[in-house]
Amino acid sequence: MLVHTPTYNAFLDTLRTMNRRPVPLELVADGKTWHFERPADAGGAKVLLLVNPHNPTGHCFTLAELHELAELAERHDMIVVSDEVHADLAFAPDAHIPFGTLLPDQTITITSASKAFNMGGVHCAVAHLGHPGVRAALNAQPPHLYGAASVLAVEATVAAWRHGDMWLAEVMSILDRNRKLIAERIPPHVRYQIPAATYLGWLDFGIPDAAGYLESEARVRLNPGPLFGAPDGFARLNFGTSGPILEEMLTRIAAAMPSPKGDIVRA
Q1: Going by C-beta distance under 8 Å and a sequence separation of 6 or more, which residues neighbour residue 10?
Q2: What is its EC number (predicted)?
Q3: Is the dihedral of CA 237, 19, 148, 135 positive or negative?
Q4: Which domains are assigned to the chain?
Q5: If you ran DSSP here, which 8-state letter would residue 33 be given?
Q6: How many CA atoms lie within 13 A of 96 on its CB side?
Q7: CA–CA separation, 191 vs 27, rounded Å?
Q8: What pTM value is reported for the model?
Q9: What are phi and psi of 218, to 5 degrees?
Q10: Which residues, including other chains, have CB under 8 Å from residue 252's CB and lie 6 or more apart?
Q11: What is the per-residue pLDDT across 208-234, written as a single tens digit (0 to 9) for each?
Q12: CA 69 to CA 71: how far, in whole Å?
């Protein structure tokens, strides 16, 4: 399975459980920014696992990037599983582009209101099965095998998408301030690219076991990079919180971080 790395940790766990071989498209660092390497070949993969907007980097794939992936998938007759659960969380001028608009017959799109509307506990997602073979295989399974969403979960999801625009606009305003605050407050030698989407900051601290160090020295718990298939100098910061809490987190991180020379940086 072709997958951008780092990627959502649950996908890596699932690939291992299913004994599937991941073919990585790795993150490439470029100064203070990064981008994913361009796919030259499918590496024998039969499935492209796409996360767009991307978790954990917050990258919003451009139309040109998606066209490259679509051409690769079409050339190698790959099924594309596109996780688009963060679709509602793209910051202007960036925009989420559904992969199914490029290659509808080979794409399975998964989306949900859970991320944008803070409804993870509702346990409801939507799958658009564009590939006829996948739909036939799913229909051939016993109907009770995969369970079903509750009536309440369905109604809550529909209500969020139909009536939640004003609430979401307010949330996006807060998240926009927060993503920029990280850039302002994080020590300059920590590599951080302001995310184009999501409430996730991907940071390269450049020290061993960054998440473990910051939990011990700053009392701030981040998600460690290896969880997502990245080196342990990386960590993911969830900035979907209030401004004062994020400011406290960043103050503690800045105070605890070693300088490039090994000294402690005191904010």
Answers
A1: none
A2: 4.4.1.13
A3: positive
A4: 2-148 (3.40.640.10), 165-256 (3.90.1150.10)
A5: E
A6: 22
A7: 13
A8: 0.91
A9: -110, -10
A10: 218, 219, 220
A11: 999 999 999 999 999 999 999 999 999
A12: 5
